[in-house]
Amino acid sequence: MPRQPSNCRGCGCQLSTIQRIRGICDNPECRRKDVNFQQQQRRQAALQIIRDQIPASWRTSTSVAFLPRNTNRLVPLSETRIEALRQHLEQIITEARALPAPAFEVVKETSATTNGVDAKQSALPVLDAACGLCGGHCCATGGNSAWLEPNTIRRLQWQRLPVADTRIIEHYLGFVPEVGYENSCIYHAENGCCLPRTMRSNVCNQYLCKGLSEVVQGLEDGDGRCVAATVIGVAPISIALVDALGILETHKPAGKN
Ligand code: SF4
Ligand code: SF4
Ligand SMILES: [Zn+2]
Fold first, then answer.
1. What is the mean pLDDT of the chain?
2. Residue located nearest, by CA, to atom 5 of ligand 1
3. In this structure, are residues 227 and 218 in contact, taking their beta carbons and an 8 Å threshold?
4. CA 252 to CA 239: how far, in whole Å?
5. Distance, CA of 172 to CA of 196 (rounded, Å)
6. How confident is the model at residue 106, as a pLDDT?
7. What number of other Cβ atoms are within 10 A of residue 9's Cβ?
């Protein structure tokens, strides 16, 4: 059993017997900084498990990208959720009509982080494949509004041809799946997002998670190949060897069906 530290790993102060179990003192700053330390510990543990399991033929591709994994279950979409989306659409369409005409026809929608992935890299087909492995973990943030905002409607409004508000609402509602993931976006179904890409918000089209930036970095470091693993806690759920165009091979982690 490893010896318990007698000093805080944040500030170095002397620890009480109880504090030694955690290895940090009660100072909020030490606790805040320790979140990163804990994440690194979990990452190292997961990395070891993955490295122990990947086939020998993949071992030259040493970079491992960590992806999250959607674990929600599929349930029928409730009328309450559909009604909430309808009300949201009514509101943003009304607001879109009241917006002033944009200068130079540029509509400024809310932006989202790409975690350092540039525009050219964001078009790599492997990123879609990686999102497929993950199953849309980030779509949990979409709720019943799917990040749609007045400026999304304004951008589309139907490429300058007049379309009635009710028609726009029905068009959006027409893409709601019958069955979707519980506690996720109303458009999030078994095979991914049900909304055509052009109708999605800018946030949805632009966002790239940290895991995807690790895939891009991993491909660069690994001479065009890397391992992408979906992980919950320290347990790998799926492991794949990928290149820029997508998945080359998959490996089932021990204990997964
Ligand atoms: S962006 Fe990241 S979290 Fe979202 S679906 Fe893709 S891999 Fe998953
Ligand atoms: S609209 Fe599509 S991409 Fe955006 S959060 Fe919902 S399911 Fe995800
Ligand atoms: Zn401390």
1. 93
2. 136
3. yes
4. 6
5. 10
6. 79
7. 15
Q: Which pLDDT value is given to residue 158?
A: 81
Ligand number with the minimum distance to the CA of 190: 2
The answer on pLDDT for 1 being more than 60 is: no
Q: Mean pLDDT, to the nearest integer, of 173-196?
A: 98
**For residues 148-173, average pLDDT:** 93
- Substitution site in 113, 134, 200, 237 for ligand 1 pocket (most atoms within 8 Å of beta carbon): 134
Looking at the CA of residue 200, tell me the nearest atom of ligand 2.
1
CA–chain centroid gap for 4, Å, is: 37
Residue with tokens 């491992």: 64
By most ligand atoms within 8 Å of CB, the mutation choice from 200, 207, 208 for ligand 2 is: 200
Q: Which residues contact 142 (CB under 8 A, 6 or more apart)?
A: 184, 185, 186, 187, 188, 204
The 3-state secondary structure of the chain, one letter per residue: CCCCCCECCCCCCECCHHHHHHCCCCCHHHHHHHHHHHHHHHHHHHHHHHHHHCCHHHCCCCCEEEECCCCCCEEECCHHHHHHHHHHHHHHHHHHHHCCCCHHHCCCCCCCCCCCCCCCHHHCHHHHHHHHHHCCHHHHHHCCCCCCCHHHHHHHHHHHCCCCHHHHHHHHHCCCCCEEECCCCCCEECCEECCCHHHCCHHHHHCCCHHHHHHHHHHHHCCCEEEEEEEECCEEEEEEEEECCEEEEEECCCCCC
CB 46 within 8 A of CB 237: no
Q: d(Cα 109, Cα 154) in Å, to the nearest integer?
A: 9
